[in-house]
Amino acid sequence: MRYQLYYWTGIQGRGEFVRLALEDSGTDYLDVAREQGDAVMMSFLRGTQPGARPFAPPFLRAGRQVIAQTANILAFLAPRHGLVPASAASQCYALQLQLTISDIVAEVHDTHHPVSGELYYAQQRAEARKRAAAFRTQRMPKYLGYFEQIVASNDGRHALGRRHSYVDLSLFQLMAGLTYAFPGAMKRLKRRLPHLHALGERVAARPRLAAYLASERRLPFNENGIFRHYTELDG
Amino acid sequence: MRYQLYYWTGIQGRGEFVRLALEDSGTDYLDVAREQGDAVMMSFLRGTQPGARPFAPPFLRAGRQVIAQTANILAFLAPRHGLVPASAASQCYALQLQLTISDIVAEVHDTHHPVSGELYYAQQRAEARKRAAAFRTQRMPKYLGYFEQIVASNDGRHALGRRHSYVDLSLFQLMAGLTYAFPGAMKRLKRRLPHLHALGERVAARPRLAAYLASERRLPFNENGIFRHYTELDG
User: Fold this and answer.
1) Does B225 touch chain A (CB under 8 A)?
2) Which of A39, A219, A222, B48 has a CA between 20 and 30 Å from the CA of residue B148?
3) Which CATH number is correct for A3-80, 3.40.30.10, 3.40.50.150, 3.40.50.1100, 3.40.50.261?
4) How far is A214 from chain B (nearest CA, A)?
């Protein structure tokens, strides 16, 4: 069975977390909207397709099953493709960590859209400056300090257990995105996050992932996505 | 085994979604911080307790397992206490819906704290007015319209399958919280959400839940929680 991934074209966004799991595990998938355009997702979002109706992309079609919500998709894929230990307790813990990554990702989005996703960044720039300052100085250090401790108090190399998991992939993506969006703030934090930086480098060097990152399938970060670089938001 | 629930005292907050599942299923639990004070949670948050380290409350102790993230706790409890169908596909779909409820709950929080959780509401009132307006007019109708359709296109009475689940409990809580926080906006939407309103009433009338809601264990909504009523944010 070939999975069908549905996500907005033109950005990495939340779809990228799913893409990394598929690419790293060498799993066959079709990136549907990139092949056929964003409009192909609309019938799913309107609920006129069979299967679970998603509120928003990304969603995954696995045979007749439709699965939405990034962390939920990852929790579905991971045990099938060697990206999480087999025990129920490990999978529960992995999902806990992934959901905490989802939380910081949502907060990253709101640094440039603190008022409304329906308005342009330029229409909420003043509010964005305030929100981004709070994010850079309070939330980002708190979240990353937490994940640093998670890795350090585990085996120093992985988020959970003694082997690679989808949580490591997501931590790589989080670090990459934050480094793109907030290079100054991340540089100032670097000394405090040795395990996270080393983990990110190891993940990026995994053969299938390195090939993916060098391919055209890996879109560059840009100012339409979740991780955006605006100099004035980096303090 | 008696579960131990850890959540901030004084508010319903995210802990209430877990409490509703425990109360509705008649499951024995200790509401630890309410018995012993918020300070009892700190060693878990600092990572000096055994078991998975939570980023934030709520978290649940089940024997030696510590489980954090509201939706993750519910996904853990539900199959053990008759609050979700047995099939993996149903549990995946339930989690998808619950995570979408988590998303709107986070957006509700940000209507009164659009800049920073570290500042008081009064320090971000101007930004809150803008964010709340976008929430009331765009996000809330979009989310609730989605859930209305989910119930209507299912059996008209439940979020999934033909029986009660934890998602129904969470939809009840969402409707109750939004009605408290945004009575005007919810009144204007009422005609468009007949299934959600009926579902909320049925859930509230379930014997164990009705007893809980009438008890002192059910704290009233208040202006320290997630669902807050500020007249100026209701438009």
Assistant:
1) no
2) A39
3) 3.40.30.10
4) 32
Handedness of CA A47, A52, A55, A58 (dihedral sign): negative
Give the integer Cα–Cα distance in Å for A54 and B97. Answer: 9
Contact criterion met (CB below 8 Å) for B121 and B230: yes
pLDDT, one tens digit per residue, over A87-97 is: 999 999 999 99
Cβ <8 Å between A131 and B116: yes
Kindly report the nearest CA distance between residue B52 and chain A, in angstroms. 7
State how far the Cα of B24 lies from the Cα of B210, in Å rounded to an integer: 9
Nearest-angstrom CA–CA distance, B116 and B128: 11
Counted across chains A and B, CB pairs separated by less than 8 A come out at 109
d(CA A132, CA A61): 35
CATH 1.20.1050.10 fits B88-207, yes or no: yes
**SS3 call for B78:** helix
Cα–Cα distance, B137 to A172 (Å, whole number): 36
Whole-structure pTM value: 0.98
- Give chain A's mean pLDDT: 97
Contact flag B134-A116 (C-beta cutoff 8 Å): yes
Assign A177 to helix, strand or coil: helix
Ordered by start, the domain boundaries in chain B are 88-207
Q: CATH code for A88-233?
A: 1.20.1050.10
Burial of A214 (0-12, 13-18, 19+ CB in 10 A): exposed
Angle at A19 between CA A77 and CA A46, to 5 degrees: 80
Tens digit of each residue's pLDDT (9 = 90 or more) over A13-70 = 999 999 999 999 999 999 999 999 999 999 999 999 888 999 999 999 999 999 999 9
ipTM score of complex:
0.98
Tens of pLDDT along A101-148?
999 999 999 999 999 999 999 999 999 999 999 999 999 999 999 999
